[in-house]
Amino acid sequence: MEGGSMRRSGRPQLTIARRGVAALAVAFAMLAAGCAGGDGGSEGKGAKPSPSSASARAAAAEKQLKTNSLVPLEGAAPTPKLPVTVDSSDGRKVTVEDASRILPLNGGIAEIVFTLGLGDKVVGRDITATFEEARGLPQVTKAHDVSAESVLSLEPTVVLADTDTGPSEAVDQIRDAGVPVVVLDPANELSDVSTRTTRVAEALGVPAAGKAVNDRFADELKAARAAVPEGNRPKVAFLYMRGSAAVYLIGGKGSGADSLIDAAGAEDAGVAAGMDKPFTPITSEALVKAQPDVILMMSKGLESVGGIDGLVEIPGIKETPAGLDRRVVDLEDGVLLSFGPRTPLVIDILVERLHQG
């Protein structure tokens, strides 16, 4: 599943972009603190969240995501302490001696590298790295296949991949050329984000920065979940669609969306209907059984079926409460299931949108 479509000449713009993002981060932090209560506020420690607090957090999150930029750790960039030898998820031990030219072959991994403060050492990107800081980097994938020739032409000193990266022949070719390739497990739920951040930071020789990113992530996620309103949990169906390719799937256990839906205080309709596979082809019977109150989609997926008007014409959609009420929530492809440092912003938005009306 793709997260979204994704020269060094663009690198000087990174500092300018970071300043703007840092300002937004400060504003977001102040707003978050205000939503948490403030002096004598009705939403101090232990108080119930209000609709206004959820709306304010969602508005701040949407503003941040609209910039399509990341918020790196404050302060000077960390200095990698190398060499290090780490475990790779393909069963190998990999020694990294140089992190001066980093090439992440996954959008979520790339987000982590930039958030650690090492973005100026990244030399290329794959198609799922859709955030602004990566825009000027050479792309080394066609569709989702890695081009070994493109990778090697950038002379990376370390490549970060995951077990879904392929084809395997290309990965072998990169490794055979003497480039250290650290393979990571995919992130399919919230708990995977911290693990992957720790492993990336260790592979790049900056473990302390990894801990700092994880601490920030935990604080932001806790604040996002604190805004979940009490009461009934709406049933939410995640639909993965690519109309041009006739791909129509509903998410179930292990889709990744189930973890986000749960964190936002809702119930995954596919899981509740007994769908024990990550994705199942959509049928009218499956939709009627799931009976979602809300449909969650990637923005490009919704666009590919003609927007909400086209979606409700798909057999079975109109027979659900979500279809009847046209309750559809969509988020940008490169963010929704990226399971990177921006995921707490996704939870902020879902908390507000899934519990509306």
TrEMBL record:
Coiled-coil segments: none
Q: Where is the composition biased (Low complexity)?
A: 47-61
Alphabetized, the UniProt keywords read: Signal
Fetch the Pfam families from UniProt: Peripla_BP_2 (PF01497)
Keyword DNA-binding on entry: no
First and last residue of the signal peptide: 1-38
Transmembrane regions listed in the UniProt entry: none
Q: Which PANTHER family does the annotation name?
A: HEMIN-BINDING PERIPLASMIC PROTEIN HMUT, VITAMIN B12-BINDING PROTEIN
What the record says about family reads: Belongs to the bacterial solute-binding protein 8 family.
* Name of the featured protein: ABC transporter substrate-binding protein
Q: State the organism named in the record.
A: Streptomyces phaeolivaceus
